[in-house]
Amino acid sequence: MSIFSIKITESKNQALVTIMFGREESLDNIAFAIENRMLSITASNLSKSASGTLAILADFIGFEPGSEEVTLIIHAKDKYHMHISTKGDYVRFTLDEKEIFYWNADEFADTPPEVLGAVCGAFIYGPASQRNPAKTAEAKQVLQLMDSCDDGDNRCVEFIKQVSEKSGKSYEQISKELEPFI
Question: Nearest Cα to 4, choosing from 17, 25, 19, 26?
């Protein structure tokens, strides 16, 4: 197995963070290292208590008391950031302050290896993936449904709900995946 090791931008407000993970589509763990400390986020822990595990990660990275999120600056130039809810509710990535990836705790709990793989992909490909975003299977289905009828544009919400129910992917995630195309 190959290991990726990504050093996150160090700034006066953020210590150097190194993120390590394997080179697979779905993963069993991601390790975060700050100075001489390390925390491993595992699929097993996420399936047992996703919110608790994500809250531990937020605490490990550190945040100001009363903050709703802890933010990691990944690429300062692109304003590419990872945000972790201090309560462990979600992880999201932003580019130029626009949210481009989002996973809630339920998604981490339901399919932890796949979501960990997606998070790693966000670290590796990040801003580049947004320049020419790929359509997910669910996004393609919604767009096909919209194109199949005259009032498709007005029925977008209905089609997202329909595809969400069939695929098991959250309404919110499909909506985000559709943003570049609608």
Answer: 19
For the chain, what is the radius of gyration of the CA atoms?
A: 17
C-alpha 161/C-alpha 169 separation (Å) is 10
* Residues 178, 160 contacting (CB under 8 angstroms): yes
CA torsion through residues 74, 76, 81, 82, sign: positive
**pLDDT tens across 103-160, in order?**
999 999 999 988 888 888 887 777 665 555 678 889 999 999 999 988 887 899 999 9
Strand order in the sheet with 80-85: 69-75, 80-85, 90-95, 98-104
Phi, psi of 65 (to 5 degrees): -55, 135
What number of residues does the chain have? 182
Burial string for 116-128 (b: 16+ CB within 10 Å, else e) reads bbbbbebbeebbe
At 28-63, the pLDDT tens digits run 888 888 878 889 888 899 999 999 999 999 998 887
Those residues with Cβ within 8 angstroms of residue 172's Cβ, 6 or more apart along the chain or in another chain: 102, 104
* Confidence at residue 133, expressed as pLDDT on a 0 to 100 scale: 65
Tokens describing residue 27:
């993963």
